From TrEMBL:
Protein name as annotated: Ribosomal protein uS12 methylthiotransferase RimO
Top-level enzyme category: transferase
GO biological process, any: tRNA modification
Protein purpose: Catalyzes the methylthiolation of an aspartic acid residue of ribosomal protein uS12.
Gene3D superfamilies in alphabetical order: Methylthiotransferase, N-terminal domain, Nucleic acid-binding proteins, tm_1862 like domain
Origin species: candidate division TA06 bacterium SM23_40
InterPro entries referenced in this protein's UniProt entry, alphabetically: Elp3/MiaA/NifB-like_rSAM, Methylthiotransferase, Methylthiotransferase_CS, Methylthiotransferase_N, Methylthiotransferase_N_sf, NA-bd_OB-fold, Ribosomal_uS12_MeSTrfase_RimO, rSAM
GO CC list: cytosol
Family: Belongs to the methylthiotransferase family. RimO subfamily.
Keywords attached to this entry: 4Fe-4S, Cytoplasm, Iron, Iron-sulfur, Metal-binding, S-adenosyl-L-methionine, Transferase
Necessary cofactors: [4Fe-4S] cluster
Subcellular localization(s) per the UniProt record: Cytoplasm
Length: 421
């Protein structure tokens, strides 16, 4: 059967998609890139926010119209929206032939040299705004040896960068042993031949331990990069969100991390428009973002999710105010990013080449021959570096001197190719 796959949502969802693809390939189904060539379309959906639900519904509505034109077409809906749709009938699509929950080998759809490694399923936290525990179930760590074997298998097919994901990577192993085993996992993964970069996403600030910090600082293959979603800096709002650390504690922790891990790149995400966020709380958030100068920042707009505590709280913020606050915060971060990129000029950095430009360095690509990333940039969510000169093949590393700051991105010149690490 010819199958076309659409993956929506975050990197954790992408891993699920890749595992679905592997099962399909093993069963001798043919993956096609065009919907018109498909006999079945599989959509892996997301329902984390209203925006994610809207995107999923938009795709499903389009497929429902397509099915009216092609009644024989089968549409299978998987992922979080499918799980929610089993409970909430209004979320279901009339065009769907079948609904799979989120519990359904891998076929990589990322760059072949970069792969997400999902180290756990589910979540035990009860953040007041989040529906994920209801959709994904309790936190369940994958066995450490199984993850190491998966990493070896990825390395054997050319993966050089592992990106660890879970709803909370810092809680890895707590359900298995009573304490986090993330430090042990990172050490074991660093021993896998062929893997050169190991990156951590979704680190909960309440559960980051000294052992984890030590491994990030000392283990050469673990890039000096942490994704640490803080959500806010108002202690009152953080308490309402069911977060343990207050705003000043988070600020102190960030200062401590930068001291403990020289050269650390910090990504965070914040939530604007949470119930009770008045002008004072929002201004405090803006001030904290200015003062702490995160390297990368994602801003999410609060959306009340049915079945969560926050959906029923008083003092809901109007939608237009939430959107305006998101835009203002991103404007502040843009200024920070532009100053940061210009400050990098002249530095020599290690770069993982992601792709070459077809036809070589010509005017169509500004004279750049390739594009890649530094250790401070995760794929898809952070910036890139555009390269001039004789860049190595995609999946290989080089040394480059940064020649210009391009806002969220960088420009550089290859100064040497790197020997296979």
């Amino acid at each position: 059967m010819n199958i076309h796959v659409i993956s929506l949502g975050c990197p954790k969802n992408l891993v699920d998609t890749e595992m679905m693809l592997a099962r399909l390939v093993r069963r001798n189904h043919r993956l096609v890139s065009e919907q018109d060539d498909a006999e079945l379309i599989l959509v892996n959906t997301c329902a984390f926010t209203d925006e994610a639900v809207a995107e999923s519904r938009e795709v499903l509505d389009g497929l429902a119209r397509l099915k009216q034109e092609r009644p024989e077409l089968r549409i299978v809906v998987a992922g979080c929206l499918a799980q929610a749709g089993k409970r909430v009938s209004r979320l279901r699509s009339p065009g769907a032939s079948r609904w799979w929950g989120s519990s359904v080998g891998r076929h990589l759809v990322t760059f072949p040299h970069s792969a997400y490694l999902k180290i756990a399923e589910g979540c035990d936290h009860r953040c007041s705004f989040c529906i994920i525990p209801q959709l994904r179930g309790p936190y369940c760590s994958k066995p450490l040896d199984l993850l190491v074997d998966e990493a070896r298998g990825l390395a054997e097919v050319g993966v050089r960068e592992l990106i660890l994901v879970a709803e909370d990577t810092t809680c890895y192993g707590v359900d298995l042993s009573g304490i986090s085993l993330l430090g042990d996992l990172l050490t074991r993964l660093a021993d896998v031949d062929g893997i050169h970069w190991i990156r951590l996403l979704y680190c909960h600030p309440d559960h980051l331990t000294q052992d984890m910090i030590d491994v990030v600082r000392e283990e050469e293959k673990v890039v000096k990069y942490l994704d640490l979603p803080v959500q806010h800096f108002s202690t009152q709002l953080l308490r309402s969100m069911q977060r343990a650390r207050g705003g000043s504690e988070i600020s102190d922790m960030i200062a401590g991390l930068r001291t403990a891990i020289p050269g650390l790149t910090l990504r965070t995400s914040v939530l604007v428009g949470y119930p009770g966020e008045g002008p004072g709380e929002f201004e405090g958030l803006c001030s904290a973002v200015r003062e702490l100068t995160f390297d990368h920042l994602g801003v999410f707009i609060f959306s009340p999710q049915e079945g969560t505590e926050a959906a029923t709280l008083p003092d809901q913020v109007p939608e237009h105010v939430r959107e305006a606050r998101r835009d203002r915060l991103m404007s502040i971060q843009q200024e920070i990013a532009f100053v940061r990129s210009r400050s990098q000029v002249g530095k020599v950095v290690e770069v993982l080449v992601d792709r070459h430009f077809g036809g070589g360095a010509d005017d169509r690509h500004g004279g750049y021959s390739a594009v890649g990333r530094t250790a401070g940039d995760a794929p898809e969510i952070d910036g890139v570096i555009y390269l001039r000169g004789a860049a190595p093949m995609p999946g290989e590393f080089c040394q480059a001197r940064i020649t210009d700051g391009l806002g969220y991105d960088l420009a550089g010149e290859v100064i040497s190719r790197q020997q296979d690490p």
